[in-house]
Design brief:
By secondary structure, the protein is an alpha/beta fold. The protein has a single domain (3-206), classed as NagB/RpiA/CoA transferase-like (Rossmann fold). It has helices spanning 3-20, 32-42, 55-59, 62-67, 83-94, 120-126, 145-164, 169-173; strands at 25-29, 47-51, 72-74, 98-101, 105-107, 112-116, 131-137, 141-142, 188-192, 201-206. Strands 1-10-7-4-2-3 form a 6-stranded parallel beta sheet, with helices on both faces. Strand 5 and strand 6 form a beta hairpin. The chain is globular. The relative contact order is 0.21.
Length: 212
């Protein structure tokens, strides 16, 4: 285990305790493979699975595992061909048994910091799906909420703008321009500081650098 991996593990174990007092159950996995196995174990009883816009779920291999699991029914937002179909899939996702997402930033003290465009991702994090599984690489850990918002403006929004082909200042400048453009991806800012429904939100921290 490298020095960085040792530090990640120590920090992850500290954060698990901080999440617990906020009503969220957290886990630490050293690798993506371990995290995929854990997430699949958490969904062993079957049911429907939806997801938000997340590169982490794809990078770590969890998306392929869910699609290939015979005991799970994946709600695939990518199959929508019309705005009406897209809306229907979003509504189904709101009623899913499990919702998979990452977090744009996570504070050491156990807060989830997310900024969203349409708001469907943060909406499901807040309310709707019976269970929420948040997966995130340790590269997304920050000191506090302000640092989390700053991280998103520099490290999350610009690559997401490039991925989605948005016409926003962050796509051209490489950092947040605090814009009000039609393609603005920073419309909703959500800080999850506590879960009233204890155990609904489960956070899997991964000792790798994943996502944006």
């Amino acid at each position: 285990m490298t020095a960085k991996q040792q530090a990640y593990k120590a920090l992850g174990n500290t954060m698990i305790k901080n999440f617990a007092r906020r009503g969220m159950e957290a886990f630490y996995c050293e690798t993506s493979a371990e995290a995929v196995a854990l997430a699949m174990e958490l969904m062993k009883d079957g049911g429907t699975v939806g997801k938000g816009g997340t590169e982490t779920v794809k990078e770590m291999g969890l998306l392929d595992a869910v699609k290939g699991a015979p005991h799970l029914t994946f709600i695939d937002r990518e199959v929508a061909k019309t705005p009406e179909e897209k809306k229907e899939i979003f509504l189904k996702t709101m009623q899913s048994d499990y919702f998979l997402t990452s977090s744009n930033a996570i504070t050491v003290d156990g807060e989830l910091v997310n900024i969203d465009g349409n708001g469907n991702r943060v909406a499901c994090l807040i309310h709707g799906p019976e269970h929420v599984i948040v997966v995130a690489g340790m590269n997304k850990v920050v000191d506090d909420v302000d640092s989390g918002i700053e991280r998103i403006g520099i490290y999350a929004a610009p690559p997401n703008a490039a991925r989605l082909g948005t016409r926003t200042p962050c796509a051209a400048l490489g950092h947040c321009g605090d814009c009000h453009s039609e393609d603005c991806m920073c419309c909703q800012i959500v800080i999850t500081r506590h879960s009233r429904h204890k155990g609904r939100i489960k956070v899997i921290l991964i000792g790798e650098e994943l996502g944006f």
